[in-house]
Amino acid sequence: MSMALDPVRGRAGLGVQSIEVGLRLLRPLIDAGRPLNLTALAKTAGFAAPKARRYLVSLIRAGLVEQDPQTGRYGFGALAIEVGLNALGLLDHNRLARQALSELEVEVGQSTCLAVWTPGGPTVMAVESSPQEGIIFVAMRVGSTLPLLSASGRIFLAHLPREITAPLLQRERKRNPTSATQIAAIVEQIKRQGYAASKDATVPGISAISAPIFNHDGQLVYALTCFGPTVGFEVSPRSKFVRALRSKAEAVCARLGHRNGAHSGTS
User: Fold this and answer.
1) For the chain: N or C, fewer Cβ within 10 A?
2) Which CATH number fits domain 83-255: 3.40.250.10, 3.40.50.300, 3.40.50.1970, 3.30.450.40?
3) Does domain 2-76 have CATH number 1.10.10.10?
4) Four-CA torsion 60, 65, 70, 72, nearest 10 degrees
5) Tens digit of pLDDT per residue, the chain (267 long)?
């Protein structure tokens, strides 16, 4: 047992030391922004590998950590992601982004979603489904992970450091062969146009467009996405859908202190 400051009583209270020690293994995952093997995780946390493994077993059972059965690397589990997404809900910039998401859905009459980057890749944090007749509903739920080559995923591919996206991109390219030249062309087009587009890429008959939202430091925080039936859903730069999407994204960027607009992010 350890003594921790009790915020309610203003004095030290009894705590569970084993929990405090075990949770130290989460910090390396947060700092790395990607799954880690046991050796790297234990070394960074200051643990011996056998000790780290024992705590990881408990963290996996609790849903805070999960282990990739193929690579053996450890990443955040479902509970950790859920906690993180709920914590985001307490922040003002999350409220602004959600408001833009709802407004965009009403303005264009198409379904919209908001994605954030997690150790597992682009992850849905909010969805607004269009209620209009004739709009195809796409099964997408909060917490689901999107392909890196989806419209939302391409935003992160274009604006996050390569070392963060490379492991996920490598895995996807094994299933969906895409040359380095094609990837470079996709990234260049997104940076030039200020948005990403995909036709029938993730779900047949569904197209999507996505724009980046940056914070005051120029860091990418969200991918704001609009999607609908490919027939009638124009994804060219001059389409009403793209204009509305970029306008909303740039407005949120401005509110977050990013004065260069949604087009000019960092990579």
Assistant:
1) N
2) 3.30.450.40
3) yes
4) -90
5) 444 444 444 445 566 788 888 889 998 988 888 899 999 999 999 999 999 999 999 999 999 999 999 899 999 998 888 887 776 555 567 888 889 999 999 898 888 999 999 888 999 999 888 765 444 455 567 888 899 989 999 999 999 999 999 888 888 887 777 788 888 999 999 999 999 998 877 777 889 999 999 987 889 999 999 998 888 888 899 999 999 999 999 999 988 777 664 444 443
